[in-house]
Amino acid sequence: MSRRRPKPVWERAYKGHVLWLGRQKLGKVSLAGEARYTWEAAGKAGATDDLDKAKKAVELAVLVADKQRDLFD
Question: What is the pTM of this model?
Answer without folding.
Answer: 0.85
